[in-house]
Amino acid sequence: MSRPAGVSMRRLILLRHAKSDWPDGVADPERPLSTRGRDAAVRMGAYMALEHLLPDHVLVSSARRTRETWDLMAGEFNPVPVASSEPRLYEASAARLLAVVRETPKALHSIMLVGHNPGLEDLADMLVLGGPAGPLARMAEKFPTGALAVIDLPVDDWAKAAPSSGRLDRFVTPRSLGVEK
């Protein structure tokens, strides 16, 4: 997607936490990753590092499974992006997620949200207007655990992020990286 002259781009990376376990007696916010989820998180971090998908800042839901996902991914980066816990990402709607995105300082050009469905999938659907047909179709079919959506927004300020304005750069799933279902 070509951008109009003089318009900066912002890159929003959405990552759904990796596959979690459902241990008896454990409250939802404290659910840990499964073995498969831990493997997927490491592989997704390695993929992002290899592809130079290095966000300026990472916002991580306060849930244990999102924190574990990011901690495993972060080990694959050099340097490790700055990350902070963002409790508003837990069980957030697309509208709440967009509000968080719009609060991002203008100086940051690339951010990543590590969160949950249905909010992340709904936000991606809300923002994306175009992109490559294959990734668009895969994202429309399913946004599984561990999935990564990279969305470019033609804005010079996060506060201007708007529905139907983004272009999907890529959509990657753990399965596409060889993590078994």
Would you kindly provide a written description of the structure presented here, covering whatever features stand out?
By secondary structure, the chain is α/β, with parallel strands linked by helices. The chain has a single domain (10-18, 27-177), classed as 3-Layer(aba) Sandwich (Rossmann fold). 30% of the residues lie in helices and 20% in strands. The chain has helices spanning 35-50, 64-74, 94-102, 119-127, 133-141, and strands at residues 10-16, 57-60, 82-85, 110-115, 128-130, 148-153, 166-172. The chain has a seven-stranded mixed beta sheet with strand order 3-2-4-1-6-7-5. α2 (64-74) links the parallel β2 and β3 (82-85). The mean pLDDT is 94.
Question: Can you give keywords for this protein?
Answer:
30% helix; 181 residues; alpha/beta; 5 helices; globular; Rossmann fold; single chain; seven-stranded mixed β-sheet; 7 strands
